[in-house]
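FORM 12-B: Structure-to-Sequence Request
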């Protein structure tokens, strides 16, 4: 379902309450990563340049429903003003007298940032009166915080769901998530390949299940591949494994077969003697039913597997990736994740990174600008890939 965005409406002279994601990492009052602020700027500039009164709101950290100086958004207001080259008025509260005064005196094109939404427990509780009060600051509601779009909180969905706002649209960040990630899921260019990795199968069951209805190939790597391999009788040594998920792994393998979806698992591994960067390493090509000797654990996909996965990526037209291929935090075991990132960066396909660890791995490897899209939400992008309705998106006006 396509949703209206800020480009579909006239915002001049209107109060636009924009839910942004300013949940930035902070150390001693200094913001240590500006990515999220940078990400919000196109929407803020667009609205301000078109004469909207831009009222920004966000959460930061987990202040548990009460004021805590450690989590004030004041440093964000200062940094944002610097980055925009124009003033940003900061309200010292969320729905109190300071917010009321700042919103009332906001002129067309001006920008106000409200204090941390989570200083009120009513935000996460999605409390009705809190929603009503927030809504009094807006003629138009704009959601541009994909990272919290899977939460039904007051500022992400409740304000619209209770019927307090007439117009609710997506900003550029959410608009891009819907058009690229949503577009790929609804109407992919084929062959469509999904690559799933990470530690556990249990975290990604719903994703694999949903994607099996949509893709041509599923590639499974990382720690969770060992549950699939062990379920089929391979010896996996001391590798990470969820024995209670064997039946489920076999069901997923059967589902793939029934649907004609190619399911690729690692054919060789790099394994280590311990879970550390100093581990002795070994790489042995799989031989039928035995794979990793006792006392060793699979830490990364092997060289043949990298080649196999890269070939599959090469002939794809759409690739979605979530979860590293190995314990990439240790240099020694980052090679498989690097190989997949490189194959994606070099491919002509639509390449989508589904947030979380794979997003940081791609950025760390310097391939960030060579992907079509890197999702801005970890949990949210997983739920999106699971095919779930995200309240922060489904509440927005349809086109
Ligand atoms: P997730 O959050 O589920 O995407 O999992 C990411 C984590 O999976 C990373 O911290 C990786 O170190 C870990 N991981 C990937 N491959 C393995 C493996 N073979 N054994 C143990 N952990 C792994």
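FORM 12-B RESPONSE
SEQUENCE OUT:
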């Amino acid at each position: 379902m396509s949703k209206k965005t800020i480009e579909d409406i006239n915002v001049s002279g209107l109060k636009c309450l924009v839910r942004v994601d300013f949940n930035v990492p902070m150390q001693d009052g200094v913001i240590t990563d500006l990515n999220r602020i940078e990400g919000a700027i196109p929407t803020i500039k667009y609205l301000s340049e078109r004469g909207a009164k831009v009222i920004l709101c966000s959460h930061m950290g987990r202040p548990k429903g009460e004021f805590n100086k450690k989590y004030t958004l004041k440093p964000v207001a200062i940094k944002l003003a610097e980055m925009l080259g124009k003033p940003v008025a900061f309200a010292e509260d969320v729905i109190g007298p300071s917010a009321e005064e700042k919103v009332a005196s906001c002129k067309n094109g001006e920008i106000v940032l409200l204090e941390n939404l989570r200083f009120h427990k009513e935000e996460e509780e999605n409390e009705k009166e809190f929603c009503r009060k927030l809504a009094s600051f807006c003629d138009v509601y704009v959601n541009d915080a994909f990272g919290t779009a899977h939460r039904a909180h007051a500022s992400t969905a409740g304000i619209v769901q209770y019927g307090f706002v007439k117009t609710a649209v997506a900003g550029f960040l959410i608009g891009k998530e819907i058009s690229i990630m949503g577009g790929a899921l609804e109407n992919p260019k084929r062959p469509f390949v999904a690559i799933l990795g990470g530690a556990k199968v249990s975290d990604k069951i719903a994703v694999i299940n949903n994607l099996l209805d949509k893709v041509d190939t599923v590639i499974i790597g990382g720690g969770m591949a060992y549950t699939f391999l062990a379920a089929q009788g391979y010896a996996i040594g001391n590798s990470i494994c969820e024995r209670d998920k064997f039946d489920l792994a076999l069901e997923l393998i059967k589902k793939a077969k029934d649907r004609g979806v190619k399911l690729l698992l690692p054919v060789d591994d790099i394994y280590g003697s311990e879970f550390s960067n100093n581990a002795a390493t070994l790489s042995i090509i799989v031989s039928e039913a035995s794979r990793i000797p006792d006392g060793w654990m699979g830490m990364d996909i092997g060289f043949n597997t990298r080649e196999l996965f890269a070939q599959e990526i090469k002939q794809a037209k759409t690739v979605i990736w979530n979860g590293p291929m190995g314990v990439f935090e240790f240099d020694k075991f980052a090679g498989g994740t690097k190989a997949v990132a490189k194959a994606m960066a070099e491919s002509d396909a639509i390449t989508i990174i589904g947030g979380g660890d794979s997003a940081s791995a791609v950025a760390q490897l310097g391939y960030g600008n060579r992907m079509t899209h890197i999702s801005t939400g970890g949990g949210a992008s997983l739920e999106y890939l699971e095919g779930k309705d995200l309240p922060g998106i489904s509440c927005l006006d349809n086109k």
